[in-house]
Protein: Methyltransferase
Amino acid sequence: MPDYRDTLREAMEAHRANQLDRAEQLYRAVLERHATQPDALHYLGVLQHQRGLSDEGATLIQASLRVTPKHPDAHNNLGNIHKECGRLKEAEACYRQALTCSPGHHHAQNNLAIVLEAQERPEEAFLAYARLLEIAPEYAQGHYLLGLFLRNYAQNIEHVEQSVECFRMAYALDDRNLRALEGMGISLYALNRREEAAQVYRDWLGREPDNPIPRHMLASCGGAETPPRADDAYVRNVFDGFADSFDEQLLKNLGYRAPQVLMETMAAVLNGPNATLHVLDAGCGTGLCGPLLSPYAAHLVGVDLSPGMVEKARARGGYDELAVAELTAYLERHPQQYDLVLSADTLVYFGDLQQVVAAAHAALRPGGWLGFTLEALEALDAADDRVELTPSGRYRHSRRHVQRVLDDAGFTDARIEGDVLRREGGQPVRGWVVRARRASA
Structure:
């Protein structure tokens, strides 16, 4: 009979290779022979969380910590489960315990800074980021995250200038961190250093002429012609690269509340959470809207252009069906299939909304509802029908543009309300929260 340590080693190799079924089988084989083997408990807990079984994952890691209470990686991973489930206080306690066990554990320090920021404790978060860079001065991601923090909480122009240097350092330490280049360009634009921002993207394009991200971002800062909507390849590349940290960035990103605000608006016109509707989460991302939609859904479908995001939504669970597809084309292929189509912060990557809104109308059954959020373009003239591509790479829309495309598509009972959907660069981001109905037959 092979030594259980060989089986454990094989399990960990399978886990690293993302062969989750094989890894689980081997971890359980170890635990059949040694029920309290701490590494098998720990890593099986991580695996179960990856599968969307977060409570079971937490229980397994807690069992491992009863055997090895001073294991910093286990405390850190338990904190990650709490963080990703929104239990920020519990996550903070785990990260602090990891740091008690190992003061130089830079991943735990990184995560502690994130959850402090998410709890809107910016002074403590700043100190935690500063400590992170003391522990790991060559950690590129730490410089990148501090850059985001400084820009998000900027109280003066010096903070934005400092963010530029953080992004510059992050890229110098790791030239695979292309989000640092994007962050640098956005900060430069915010400083009104537009030509420098454009040059960042031109240099990037010079190195990677086929990369859709710098091409789109160059247009976003006025260095190239504005496209009518974000290219599919841009959206796919951005969100595939963002998938592993998407929830974390929204958690950090300061009061992100688009799904909750949108569902509050829709709940006012839906007949209670009685699980009777056929629902499409249009641009489902990692599935943040899933728990809000599932009480209303007899059948819940999620669609997203990013395969990486869809895999995260699958792990989160709650969807009856998930698809990787471009949204407009998907809607056009599913006429009169849904009672509710909901899209939180997806249509910000569309310029002219005419085609996608018409496709949503066609995909709804008579009497069905469409709900979505956008970034608001405030216009002095109520008749101003306008769309603008911003330096963030997202589009903003005037109220008149939204109303016109809803009218042209045949929607009725339209409501367009302004609200704050999140904060960015230390400032509230105002958006439109929109609902409209396809007329009954």
Observations:
- The CA atoms of residues 200 and 303 lie 33 Å apart.
- The mean pLDDT is 91.
- The chain is about 55% helix and 15% strand.
- The beta strands are 277-282, 297-304, 321-324, 338-343, 364-376, 387-389, 395-397, 411-424, 427-438.
